[in-house]
Amino acid sequence: MFNNNLNCVIYLFSKGNYYLKGTMELKIKNSILRLEQGDITKQTVEAIVNAANSRLAGGGGVDGAIHRAGGPKIMEGCKKYNGCPTGTAVITTGGNLPAKYVIHTVGPVYQNGTSGEPELLQSAYLNSLKIAERNSIKIIAFPSISTGVYGYPIKEASVLALEAVVSYLKKDTLIERVELILFCLKDYNIYCSALKAVSKNSFQ
Ligand code: AR6
Q1: Atom 31 (ligand 1) nearest CA
Q2: What is the rounded CA–CA span in Å between residue 57 and residue 66?
Q3: Which residues line ligand 1 (CB under 6 A)?
């Protein structure tokens, strides 16, 4: 996919097939948005984002995995904050993780989709990107926020997530690469379909 004004390109790997395990990239001005299947705790990026809860108390899912892999320094960092309201974000060390920082954000618990969840979900992505930018972080990886324990339907959440990231990268930003790390192939494929739709709507 190509657009002269925005230099929008999707590079496909894995034998040119969208639906095989692989990587999909969209170039947006000077930045790259990348989709990848994998474990976020293993990413060699400057910051990974945690799908936390508003008490920053640790938990299951990706939150549990990040605290386990990164060690107690991350919780020490969390305790310096008085929680993190839904849609906002805070930053701590990455402890023993390959990533130097963890940005903790809190997505909404899905109720019916008409209780402000879309706006709160997009705020979680946007506020994480703003904190990254304020800390001169150029490469950041997100999990699929709210689509596990918090029950957000992933087809809707993926479009909202990618719309938020694309809109951010369309502005002047020093962030060079944003990665969405999807834990399973099914989720990765859903995000690939969403990226095709979002890139079409955003760049036509
Ligand atoms: N790497 C990448 N993605 C992962 C990993 C991983 N290692 N592990 C899980 N996921 P969830 P939420 C995916 O439940 O819905 C916690 O208890 C997972 O497959 O982690 O925002 C917190 O403390 C799913 O697609 O986050 C909160 O209480 C996605 O991460 C609550 O869960 C998000 O699932 C937050 O719920």
Answers
A1: 149
A2: 12
A3: 39-41, 51-53, 59-63, 65, 107, 143-150, 181, 183, 187
Q: 102 with 89: CB under 8 angstroms?
A: no
Q: Nearest C-alpha to atom 5 of ligand 1 is from which residue?
A: 62
Reference 65, options 148, 188, 152, 169; nearest CA is: 148
Length of the chain as a residue count: 204
Q: Reduced to 3 states, what is the DSSP secondary structure of residue 3?
A: coil
pLDDT digits (tens, 9 = 90+) for 66-113: 999 999 999 999 999 999 999 999 999 999 999 999 999 999 999 999
What's the pTM? 0.92
- Does the domain spanning 6-203 belong to CATH 3.40.220.10? yes
Question: What are the boundaries of each domain within the chain?
Answer: 6-203
Residue 28: strand pairing partners: 31
Between the CA of 146 and the centroid of ligand 1 the distance, in Å, is 7
CA of 1 to the centre of ligand 1 (A): 31
Query: Is 187 annotated in the active site?
Result: no
Residue 1 — very low, low, confident or very high, per pLDDT cuts 50/70/90?
very low
Q: List the strands of the sheet with 101-105, edge to edge.
A: 10-12, 23-28, 31-37, 177-182, 139-142, 47-51, 101-105, 89-93
CA dist 142 to 16, 69, 72, Å? 24, 16, 21
Mean pLDDT of the residues in the chain: 91
